[in-house]
Please model this.
Amino acid sequence: MHINRIITGLIVILIVQSCASTKLVDEGETAYQQGNYQTALEKWEEVIKEKEQKLEKVDSSLYYKAGMAAWELDRTAKARQYLESADETGYASPEMYRLLAGMYNNIDNLTLEIDALESYHKNYPEGEHIDSLNKRLFETFMESEQWNKAEALWPELEEQAKTKLEMQKAYFTVNKALDNDEHCDRLANQILEKDPEHLPALEWNAIKYFEKADNLYIKVMKAYDEKRTRENYNKLLKAWDVIWPDFETARDYFKRLYKLNPKPEYATYLGHIYKRMDKEQKAEYWYKQAEKGG
Model:
């Protein structure tokens, strides 16, 4: 009989405590809706503190609410603490992931920022801020050199973003890292139309035309040297109709590059081009420039 009274008393206490907690949560909701974020935070923190002290489970949504109230009060550290707790206990919200991503960006934690952005991208593909967050996610993939992820995300970026010069430059870097030559050919020309002094695009085109001309030159010269027939000589002459313009194009690109950045590498290429064109004096000049270090 005595034990039953104790159990009944405990049940009553638990019910009273539960009702008190519910009341505090509701009061916090009312205060938050009225813009009284300080009161809302205090009410919700009281419930959280009590439950944590008793080692009771805190509803993940309560952590989220406290985090949002703290955010409205510009208490960033506390907001982050509560939003992280909400995330860790299974709460999901586009606003939570967006705010966490921004917070991690502010403290320069790229790994956690990517995690938050990827959570938004995965769970809320139609979210209000999907375009701006996808753009930032692409940038974080670039910063962390996750080239395959960056390439996979590119089609999901809004069209307006993909036409921006800086984004095209970034996408060029991605495709270069992944050896996507056809994309690089297209992007290099698009970039140079807007920025004629973009070194990576200039270098891409310069090397492309040089290798195209030089590979054909080596092929036809080898065939002619091995068998000096009239047929092979005619093939050599015909090939030069392609080789010469490509060498000229490569030459022009390397001259532009050298003017912008006098690297020995560019001078060496120019020496090779003039040597192939049988312009020994000019070839020697550029080889000497390369030896001088530019």
Notes: The domain at 196-294 is CATH 1.25.40 (Serine Threonine Protein Phosphatase 5, Tetratricopeptide repeat). The chain has three domains: 15-91, 92-180, 196-294. The radius of gyration is 33 Å. Residues 32 and 40 are 5 Å apart (CA to CA).
